[in-house]
Every structure is written in C-alpha cells, then in structure tokens.
Amino acid sequence: MESRRCDPIENLxxxxxxxxxxxxxxxxxxxxxxxxxxxxxxxxxxxFDTLKIDVGSYLEHVDRQGTAHRHNTDADKLAPLFIHHLLxxxxxxxxVEEFRLTLxxxxxxxxxxxSNNELYECGEIYDxxxxxxxx
Length: 135
Prior knowledge:
By secondary structure, the chain is mainly beta. It is about 0% helix and about 40% strand.
C-alpha cells in the first residue's frame, strides 16, 4: 500500500488508510519545537508552531531513561501521561517504518506514533502550507 500526500484541506479526499510516507517526505518536521499538547476524547493533538500532528490511534513515549509509556485514545485503556516532558523540545530526527513514525527529540525522548492498514484513519500531519498527510 502506498502512502499519499493530500492536497490542502479544502481539496481533501479520503479513500483507504495509508502507512506513513517515506522519511524524505517528513523532513520538514526536523527542527520543529513542540509548543502544545492537547488531549481530546479520542485524539492527541501536537502543535509545532505552524504545523500539527493529530493522533487518533495509540502512541508510545520513550523517556530519556528508556522507559516506554504507551497511550491509547480508548477510554478503557487509560494510563498515566508523561508526554508533557516533550513540551519545548525540538525534533532532531525522524524515522519511518511502514506503520510507525518515530520522532526523536533533542533531550533524548522518543515519540512513536502508530498507524495500521484498517479502514479508519489513525491521524493526520498538517505541514506549514496546510497540506495534509493521512495515516
């Protein structure tokens, strides 16, 4: 299954869900500082100045000591949140596997965002131009 970069939101069309795009298409994330984290009932929202990442699936925060904290948007799988430690950190490296995006931050933390090939989307990445990447 190929990943696709969508047109700006006014031309959005959804078909099937996609794995993450190649790492070369996500290099615009490098150097961006995490300004805001918003928790919604079924979504995590990460804001980096003029771009954002919305995650409706599960994610994993690996802190600088190497402890993994898994988070899911399902209410019955609640866990303590430690992702606030990412605030103010800059992304220094982006790694992509087919259904996992890893953001490495400058203080040693990792944020792993997971996707899948099921019917429903797991999230979106909005770049600085308003273009949308659906995963």
